[in-house]
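Example record for the data management plan.
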Amino acid sequence: MSSSPALDVEGVVFDLDATLVNLGGFVDWRDAHRQVVEAYLDSGCSESTVERHSRKGLFNMLNLMHDEICNTHPRGEAERIQERAYSVLEACEAQGISNCHLIVGAIEALEWLDERGIPMGVATSNSGEVAERILEMKGIRGYFAAVVGRTPKLRMKPHPDQLLACFEILGVDPRRGVVVGDSIRDVEAAKAAGAYAVAIPAYFTEPEALARAGAHRVLGGLDELPAFLSSLQIASR
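Corresponding structural encoding:
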């Protein structure tokens, strides 16, 4: 470990898309939404239920359908239905892998944390397989001791499940951890997990909205993360 000043931060969990990489800009989300709706209908889900939840947007629909299916189907069947929807979405996300690129400042932030021996993880609502492929392709997989992607066994953000699972793999108490993300869902999940929420707005996210959601700090970019963490006193928040 470097001789740099000791930090109270014991672990950092990053979101993936629009935080570390730009994947979403190369995915046809409208078509993905349509295909996921069809997957639910083909699995025998109620058309009125799917339509009602579909109006909330793709990822909100996935969360709402997860809860609905778990309440109305045996566990094994519920997981199969959700896995089918997730697999359809994974294929859509995979189409953007070859064009996706790192967010400015990502490498520098990861190197800074790595030099100080701070364990890192990724918790993403994207497919875990897609996340692994992107991280490997961009040469940054080795920075992360844990990668937790979308799975029927864990509720996605804004629920804290994925973050809690990631911190558990890292061996870090979430109350001594930092979550870095770009969306209101990331902030809400971090706060629900008891972690410190650092928000870095993407082009589609208003800084004011992230602050209203309860972000402990809103930064202008990943390049600001090392300087901020170097002065952060977790215990004082």
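Summary line stored alongside the record: The first strand starts at residue 11 and ends at 14.
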